[in-house]
Amino acid sequence: MKPPIHQPYIGGKGGVDIGLKPIEEKAWLEVDDKFNEEILLKKNLYKHRKAEVFISSHVSRNIQQDTLNKILGYMDKFYPSSYNIQSDYVEVFQSGDVYKYDDFENPLELASLIVQEDLVLMHPEENVFKLEAASLCAPTRWSLQEKFQQSLSDIHAGVPGYKQKIDSRVNKIFLNLPPNRIFERFNWSIFDSPKLFQPISSKSLVEIENIEPESLYLRVERQTIRLLDNHKTVLFTVRVHSDPITSILNHKQSIIDLLKAIQNLGDDMKNYKVIKPFESNLKQWLKSKIEHE
Description:
This protein has one domain. It is 34% helix and 23% strand. The chain has eleven helices and ten strands. It has helices spanning 35-53, 61-78, 107-112, 144-147, 152-155, 162-165, 167-175, 205-209, 252-264, 267-272, 279-291, and strands spanning 21-23, 54-56, 83-85, 89-92, 97-100, 118-125, 128-135, 182-191, 217-228, 233-244. α9 (252-264) packs antiparallel against α11 (279-291).
């Protein structure tokens, strides 16, 4: 079994941290062998639960169009053999889909169907960035409807230490993003399900507590931010990777780092990540794997 492609817990990292680093343009979006599976998920969610995964303001259409243009331009430049981009339609060879631009009232919806990432547009109002539009098909226990048109600070109000440690710095970064620069960061958590669509959970903690460590999954969010300079809007992308926790068992250092990362979390963050219900069993299990290496 291949190890996870991204392991942000390496070195025992796990708390609140901005963790932004610049990346080259060609590394902006990910296209891999899960493309068809993840696009199919988006289509099904749009068909059956669209109100939960897509939202936009009445004034965001031009910003959405710029987002679509930016993504089409990127795909044409870096994945020319995967897309046929014309003036009135785009053909996605990998999935076999052909999308006419005029068929979409919201350009962001079309943009979301040609990339695996979720797309979030944060638009400034008097230097405060608010969620103006989003396609979010892989939420990590949060509600798009609840967060609509909230500020960065309000969206992250429940994250332990966010306001005290990084709130003002994040807003300053958004205000001063240089044109044509892209930045990347990661979050990680541990879930009891591999499903990408994880809205606010109704599952009881008792059920989660009874999960065997072997049945847990490492959930990693790869996030990028870049400026849409025509509008001073920040385009925020999120790609979620879900891997069985057993995928690290052939890599002793990964086991050590994950154990250290869990141990380094404060109780408030363990509660936020919903790790506490299975923490004791998981740590014992990880320690046993290290000892048997």
